[in-house]
Amino acid sequence: MKKIDRNNLKTFKDFLIVEGEKVNIVFSTAKYDRSFNRNNDEGLKNIESLKVDFNVNEVVYLHQIHSDNVFVFNNNAKEFIEREGDAIVTNKENVIIGAFTADCVPVVLVDEVEGVIAAIHSGWKGTFNSITKKSIEKMIQEYGTRIENIKVYIGPHIRQCCYEVSEELKERFLDKTKIDENELFNGRNLSMERCILEDLRSLKIEEDNIYTINLCTYCEEEIKLFSYRKSVGTYGRLFTFAYKK
């Protein structure tokens, strides 16, 4: 796994961007307090503004429910955005697909060979139920993606330094994942990223094709981010997305 140096990221307005040959991966921040909460008018306006900012035709997302439901987007964004799920796969050009987060893990998958991208919202439930692994399997099933061509980008989320869970949930994760306790936990502080890495490695994803931005939504001070826990339940949302040029 490679850590992305934040200083090497392109910046545009309040976005951090990883530029690829055919695909751009974009992480929003809270620099200007611009939230992408689909449940209020301001958030919807900000989502719509992405069409102009990034010169795309559509912005596609889901009614996120902390599930392991993965959907393929082919057309009709208006109907699609009311589906209940937490991962989107597509091969459409000039269409943003994204995931809303405010502590959960945003994951973007890219297969530039077949021209396939995925955007994933992986909270503890999605992480526990291997939603990233299921999204990769969907890419293989629907578009013929090959494992060796997949690149994975893990965005800002609440990291092990700050993510304490209950003893019951700790035992469930240890029992399910079989990951060494000293890797997965620090006390009762869970590393969701370590769980996701375990799923990626089980599929033989190349270590050099896994990238992470080492930013914690809860304790990061240099770059402002939204954190549900830190704000005691206010409604700022980050939006992590990808689009094919």
Automatic annotation (TrEMBL):
Q: Kindly give the InterPro entries that the UniProt entry links to this protein.
A: Cu_polyphenol_OxRdtase (IPR003730), Cu_polyphenol_OxRdtase_sf (IPR038371), Cytotoxic_necrot_fac-like_cat (IPR011324)
Q: Which Gene3D superfamilies match?
A: CNF1/YfiH-like putative cysteine hydrolases
CDD domains named in the record? YfiH
Instruction: List all membrane-crossing ranges.
Output: none
Q: Source organism's superkingdom?
A: Bacteria
The record's keywords, sorted A to Z, are: Hydrolase, Metal-binding, Transferase, Zinc
Could you tell me what reaction this enzyme catalyses? S-methyl-5'-thioadenosine + phosphate = 5-(methylsulfanyl)-alpha-D-ribose 1-phosphate + adenine; adenosine + phosphate = alpha-D-ribose 1-phosphate + adenine; adenosine + H2O + H(+) = inosine + NH4(+); inosine + phosphate = alpha-D-ribose 1-phosphate + hypoxanthine
Q: Which Pfam families match?
A: Cu-oxidase_4 (PF02578)
Function comment: Purine nucleoside enzyme that catalyzes the phosphorolysis of adenosine and inosine nucleosides, yielding D-ribose 1-phosphate and the respective free bases, adenine and hypoxanthine. Also catalyzes the phosphorolysis of S-methyl-5'-thioadenosine into adenine and S-methyl-5-thio-alpha-D-ribose 1-phosphate. Also has adenosine deaminase activity.
Family as reported in the entry's similarity comment: Belongs to the purine nucleoside phosphorylase YfiH/LACC1 family.
The record's annotation in PANTHER family points to: PURINE NUCLEOSIDE PHOSPHORYLASE LACC1, UNCHARACTERIZED PROTEIN YFIH
Q: What is this protein called?
A: Purine nucleoside phosphorylase
Query: Which source organism?
Result: Clostridium hominis
Q: What is the lineage of its organism?
A: Bacteria, Bacillati, Bacillota, Clostridia, Eubacteriales
Record gene name: pgeF
